[in-house]
Sequence to fold (698 residues):
Amino acid sequence: MNYIPNILFAIALIVGIGFFANNVRKLIRNIKLGRDVDVSDNTSQRWKNMAMIALGQSKMVKRPVSGFLHIIVYLGFIIINIEVLEIIIDGLAGTHRIFSSIGPLYGVLIGVFEVLAVLVFVSVIIFWIRRNIIKIKRFWANEMTSWPKNDANYILYIEMVLMALFLIMNATDLKFQAMENGNVISQYLTPLFSGLSEGTIHIIERSAWWLHILGILAFLNYLYFSKHLHILLAFPNTYFGKIVPKGQFKNNDVVTKEVQMMMDPDADPFAAPPEDEGDDIPVKFGASDVQDLNWVQLLNAYTCTECGRCTSECPANITGKKLSPRKIMMDTRDRLEEVGKNIDANNGVFKEDGKQLLDDYITREELWACTTCNACVEACPVSIDPMSIIVEMRNYLVMEESAAPMELNNMMTNIENNGAPWPYNQMDRLNWKNE
Amino acid sequence: MSEQIIVPTMAEFMAQGKHPEVLFWVGCMGSFDDRAKKVTKAFVKLLHKSNVDFAVLGTEESCTGDPAKRAGNEFLFQMQAVTNIEVLNAYEIKKIVTACPHCFNTIKNEYPGLGGNYQVMHHTQFLKSLLDEGRLTVEGGQFKGKRITFHDPCYLGRGNDIYEAPRDLIRKLDAELVEMKSCKSRGLCCGAGGAQMFKEAEPGNKEINVKRTEEAIEVKPEIIAAGCPFCNTMMTDGVKSKNKETDIAVMDIAELIANAQDL
Ligand code: SF4
Ligand code: SF4
Fold:
C-alpha cells in the first residue's frame, strides 16, 4: 500500500494546526497586555448573552437582510464543517467516505451540506454585490482603506471557492454518485464532466478534495490577520460583554480611595500620597495607549467585524464629524498588533517606540466629538463597547494632561465652585419656586 | 409671571421630624435653565395634584457629576457624588424621582458603588406609577388627537432600557403617538450628552440636534415630546433653526399632562 498521501496529509494537518496554535498563543498574549478587570460575576447572565447574541445571532437580525444572509453563511459554516471531520479521518486513515457506512442518514447529512453549500454560495455573492456594486455606505467609510476592503472581499472569495470545491468534489466522486445517497445538488453537476475519462474525473475529484481541506487550513491561519477572527472571538466577547445598564460607567477605584482620603476628617494630611502605598495601583489615570485599556477592551478590538453598524448609527459620524466608533476599534487593534510585533522583535519585552494610541492613531478631535449616546454599543452585533475606550482616553486627557477643551474646563470649574455647570450660585438653587 | 408654589425642602421636613414619600431631585437644568424650570414647576404641580408628600434638597443639592464624568473628570465626579451621597444619607433618603435622565442614570447606577443606595425613578416612570395607583388621572384635554412624537433620551432609553413609561403617558392623552424612523433603542441622540451641551461641536456638516429635528419633522408632529431638559433645549433650538416654531412645540411629558388638566 502507498502511504505517501496519508503522510502528506498528516504533515499538512500538523503544520496548519501548529501555525494556528501559534497565532492563538500570540493573540492571548496580546490581549493579556491589557489591565486586569473582574468579569467573574453573573455567570448565568453571561452564558445567556453568549447563547443569544453569538450562537443565536440575535443582534444580527436587527438588520433583516444582512442578518438573514449572515445566518445562512454562519449555519453553513458550522454544519458543513462536520464534513471536515470525515475528510480528516479519510485523509489520515486512507479510507474513502468513512461515514457512508451509516447508510441513509449519511445521505441526509450530505444532502443538507450540499443544499447549504449552494445557499452559502448565493449569499456570499449577494454580500459581494452589496459591498462592491451597491456600495453600501458603511462599507466605504474613511477607515475602510484598501486592506479592510480587500480583507472583506478575500473572505468572500475564499468562501465561494470552498463551497465550489465541496460540490465539485462530490460531483466527480463517481462511487458516491453511484450510491445515489445524498447527491441532491451534485448529481446535476456530474454531467458537466461526462466527456472526460474516468481517470481524469478521479484526478479532478482528488484535487478538489485536497484543495478543499488545504483551503480550510489556510483559512484557519488567515483568521488571525483578518476581521474574520470574529467567528471565534464572538463567543468569548459576548460572554465578557457589558452586563450592567449601558448608561452605567465604571467608577475608578483608585479615585474612590483618594476621594475617601480627602473627605475623611481623621486622615493624616501629611501621609504619603496613595500612589506609594503599593505597586498594584496603576499610577496613570485613563488610557493613552493599548496597555492602559483593560483586556476585555483589547478582546473587543480583535473581535470587531468591521461591519460598521456602530458608525452608521453614531450621531457624530452621521453629521460629518471625524469620530467613527469602528475606527476606534480598528485603531486599537492595529496599535495592539504593532505593540505585539515590537515585543516579538525584542525578545519578549516591549521597547519604547515613541508612539501611542492617542494622537498617533486616535485624534483628540475624534474623542471630543462623542456624545456618549451608546448607539454604537447598542448597534454592535458582537457586544463591543467602543464608547468605553473613548471615555477612558478622555480620562487620560483630563486627569493626566488637563487637556480638555476650554469650554469643558469652564464647565468643570463651575461644578467645582458652584455645584452646577454654569456660574450660578448654589444658594440660588431654589429660586425657581418664586419666579 | 410670578406665582408662588409650595416646595418643601428636606431641611423643613427634618425640622418637623418627618420623612417625605419621595425626594424630588431637581437637577442643575431644572433649577437654573429657564426652559427646564417650567418643566420643574409642571412636575411639582402634578405632585401636589396627586397628593404626593415630596421634598427637594434646595440649596443642599449639587450637580450629580454626570457631565464631569462623561467629560473624563472622574475625580470631580466622585467628589460631587460623595458630597451628595453624604447629604442624601444624612436625610435617610430611600426614594428619589427626577425629571433629568442624566441625574437619574448617575444616581441610580453610579452612586451605589460609592455608598448611595436609593430607589430612583425617572419622572415619567413615577407619573406612570401614580396613574396605575389611581392617584393621578390623565386626560387628553387640549392634546386630544394631536400628533405627538417622542424623542427618546439616550440615558433613559438605551442607557436604562426605559421606553414604554413615557409612551404610555402620551397614549393616555388620547393623542396620536407617531414614531420617528429611528426610535427607541435606535433613537438618534439630540447631541447634548457626554458634556457636548457645554461646548461647540467638532467640525462636521451638520449639527446633531438639527439632524434629529429633521427626523422628527419627517413624521409631521404638532408636538415633539421630550423627557430630558437637555433634549428639550436641543430640540427647541433645532425646531427654531428650521423656522418651524409656530407649527411644532417641544414639550416635556410632565408639561403635557399638567397642561392637559389646565394646572
Ligand atoms: S457613544 Fe459616541 S461613538 Fe458611540 S455612537 Fe454615540 S457618539 Fe458615536
Ligand atoms: S464595533 Fe461592532 S458594530 Fe462596530 S464595526 Fe466592530 S463589530 Fe461592527
Observations:
- The longest strand of chain B covers residues 22-25.
